[in-house]
Amino acid sequence: MAHPGFEKGLALIRAGEYFAAHEELEDAWRAAPAEERDFLQGLVHVAVAWYQAGRGKRIGTERQLAKAIRRLQPYAPSHRGVELDALLMQLRERADSSGALLWSWWLRHPQPPERPG
After folding, report:
1. Phi/psi-derived region of residue 109, left when phi > 0, alpha when psi is between -120 and 50, beta in every other case
2. Which residues have CB under 8 Å from 18's CB, separation 6+?
3. Could you tell me the pTM of the whole model?
């Protein structure tokens, strides 16, 4: 049975409550079996990345996005109901923030786009 923090954490990310999502997903990660920990830790990094972006922390955002991509990639294309191919594409687009134009847009729109489905 999945830890309740998993579903609650996903719902909180979708609602833009990134700090609370991080807390829920971290609880689920700690309780997870070894084969699920990287997946859950990747989602924790997603929540922290969006939280850092909302605070205008470019370096913190980029680092968390890189960690999320590294941890989630092995579970693609989807895992536990999460469409990882679409999520990874969003994360990579945000991580490719070498241009000032993209970063300035991101600071004005820190919430990730709605995920289909």
Report:
1. beta
2. 12, 47, 48, 50, 51, 54
3. 0.80
Tokens of 33: 């079996």
Q: How far, in Å, CA of 104 to CA of 117, rounded?
A: 28
Residue 115 three-state SS: coil
Of all residues in the chain, what percent carry a pLDDT higher than 90? 62
Cα Rg of the chain (Å, integer)? 13
Closest by CA to 65, choosing from 99, 91, 26, 33, is: 91
Q: What are phi and psi of 77, to 5 degrees?
A: -85, -25
Q: What is the pLDDT of residues 77-108, one digit of tens each?
A: 999 999 999 999 989 888 775 444 445 545 55
Q: Say whether 66 sits in a helix, a strand or coil.
A: helix
Question: Tokens 């049975």, residue?
Answer: 1
